[in-house]
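Forum > Structural Biology > Help requests

Title: Can anyone predict the 3D structure of tRNA (cytidine/uridine-2'-O-)-methyltransferase TrmJ?

Hi all, first post here. I have the sequence for tRNA (cytidine/uridine-2'-O-)-methyltransferase TrmJ but no way to get a structure on my laptop. I'd be grateful if someone could post the structure tokens.
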Amino acid sequence: MSPVRGGFTSTRFVLVEPSHPGNVGAAARALKTMGFSRLVLVAPRVAQVQTDPEAIAMASGADDVLANAHVVPTLAEALAGVHWSLALTARSREYGPPPGAPRAMAGEACRLTATGDIALVFGNERTGLSNEDVERCTALAHIPANPAYSSLNLAQAVQVLSYELRMAYLDAGGETASAPRRPAQTVGTLAANDEIERMYVHLENALIALEFLDPANPKKLMSRLRRLFSRSGLEREEVNIIRGIAKHILLLRSRDPGQGPS
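Reply #1:
Sure, ran it for you. Structure tokens for tRNA (cytidine/uridine-2'-O-)-methyltransferase TrmJ below:
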């Protein structure tokens, strides 16, 4: 599969708890104009939003993208099988992946799209993404809008990111005359989001067993570890190694529960 076709067909756009049907329809239109079609809605406020008259009106010809939108109850389900995900946020975060500009992150997405599905994640119109949602994603992006008036509509944000991705994918396919491309880097089989989440659960249990992590006073340890691992781009083999370590820690502790940390 060519990089262009692979990128357009393996990219999901995820809207988390969208409030307004019009924004959902406008987002569908934004995607179709840039050649994308995979829209995922996480717990939209309006049930059956795909058939809402306002959403259909704002889709303005992108009715197919809207009608085929996949609705799921949680972000975890929206990211199932995803190997890389980008969270869009309008504010700085103490924890979570390191931020990047949309153009740079689109380039990273283009490099990784051959490994499998990727996702761009957008938050609720009023509150944005929760810290928990951000930490679940691989990378973080912020649109450097006018600081005096940085309010972007949800569909406008989708348009900006889908445009940047389109340009990156077309460039990778040799369909635009732009700066020379860097040599492709070898990428292993990246771990899927659900595999990484299971790794974090396993690791947390092991750290609790070691009494290194106090569940009553965690001090954001797991948030810091998530940020650390998000910078590495975990491959499936690496996730298996970490889970293997956690498994042996738990096994040894179960054999000698009285043995405390040295």
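The chain has eleven helices and seven strands. The chain has a mean pLDDT of 86.
Shout if anything looks off.
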